[in-house]
Amino acid sequence: MLRDLEKADIVQNLEDAGCPGELIRRFMKTLEEGAIQDCSRLLDGYRRTLLDDIHTREEKLTCLDYLRYQLRKA
Fold this sequence. Notes:
single chain, elongated
């Protein structure tokens, strides 16, 4: 499955996902070593980072929405 993808396609996918260059380099090196589970752990870690960012932004939106609500009530 992953072996069917070209290296350039994998790098492009990681870039499209917003992965930083260092993570891409580590991922590709790990992939070349055949350590698929370690590759998965790298992706899981970055996914957690993205999800944490979403939750942080969601909290900020909630604060703004509350203030907007209060302004409309005034």
